[in-house]
Write a structure and sequence with these properties.
The complex is a heterodimer. By secondary structure, chain A is mainly α. Chain A is 79% helix and 0% strand. The chains are: A mainly alpha, B mainly alpha.
Chain lengths: 89, 214
């Protein structure tokens, strides 16, 4: 396995979707190729840093305001799907 | 010696099927209990706002979309079949609304999902510096937030959307494909390139300080 072959399998590698036979080739390549090892490590950190950090503020006042607006629209449209059916019958 | 009674299998206890609490909240909403729907809004408003913000890169749009998503979901609640999680169903509506908003924008940033494929940036790794110490140890929370926002904003919308759904919101590849009306191989390809582009761009900030960029 070379670096291009490995890169083509990177998504499956992260998703744990590599067949056992191929996995041994992947591991062998990673053991020999420092560049690919770094790519795996830094790509994993890329995913983790985005998962672990809330990058858009969602303050309480925004939450309260949004929820009030949503519920006001829902109340105004008043009829839930079931209620609509009941009205029709 | 085994007796006849000991060889007859004991009746199995009724199968316990774990019902997601959202199912009850949805049923109560359908029956007219709006407080149940308010509970669902409370549970998922942050996730929907985050998804819309990631895709549109515009806070005001994300606020509008969050409102619209919950209102549309309320109106279409009878279309929710329960074959996916309620949160996944909401995310799908949020993706549609966000992409529609992007397409309506008359700016140079408005591109179709297919145009993203024309870029080769980041598809071949060029930076092989290690990230040490970890990003959280180098930057303050606010500095890190700025870097992460700036970096993901530079990603083409199609890549950004796939990365958001798959890696941030944790949808499966199949769920992401269904939400974006893409094939599974197309999702995998975009995800790979999104991850590699982000990695390459973040490396400018997170690379080991004594290693010069190559």
């Amino acid at each position: 396995m070379n670096c291009t072959d490995f890169l083509a399998k990177l998504t499956d590698f992260f998703d744990g979707n590599i067949e056992p036979d191929l996995m041994s080739e992947v591991k062998e390549h990673l053991g020999q190729c420092h560049h690919c090892e770094v790519v795996v490590d830094t790509t994993r950190k890329t995913i983790e840093v985005y998962r672990g950090n809330e990058i858009y503020d969602f303050p309480d006042d925004l939450s309260t305001r949004l929820r009030a607006a949503v519920m006001a629209r829902c109340e105004k449209s008043s009829c839930t799907p079931d209620a609509k059916k009941k009205l029709k019958t | 010696m085994a007796t006849l009674s000991s060889t007859i299998a004991e009746p199995l206890p009724p199968e316990t099927i774990e019902v997601h609490p959202d199912v009850d909240l949805v049923a109560r909403t359908r029956a007219g209990d709006n407080s149940a729907y308010e509970q669902l809004v409370k549970q998922y408003e942050r996730q929907i706002f985050r998804t819309a913000n990631h895709i549109t890169q515009n806070r005001e749009d994300a606020e509008d979309i969050t409102q619209d998503v919950f209102f549309k979901a309320f109106q279409k609640l009878d279309q929710f079949k329960g074959d996916s999680k309620f949160s996944t169903w909401l995310v799908r509506i949020a993706v549609n609304e966000s992409l529609m908003r992007l397409r309506k924008r008359k700016t140079s940033k408005t591109v179709s999902m297919d145009q993203d494929l024309q870029t080769e940036e980041g598809s071949i790794p060029r930076d092989f510096a290690e990230w040490r110490p970890n990003p959280e140890q180098i930057y303050s929370q606010s500095e890190l937030g700025d870097i992460l926002r700036k970096t993901i904003a530079g990603l083409p919308p199609g890549f950004r959307t796939v990365f958001t759904l798959r890696d941030i919101e944790n949808l499966s590849t199949e769920e992401t494909a269904a939400a974006l009306k893409l094939s599974v191989p197309a999702v995998k390809s975009r995800l790979l390139r999104a991850r590699l582009q982000l990695r390459e761009r973040l490396s400018r900030y997170f690379r080991q300080k004594n290693e010069a960029p190559k």
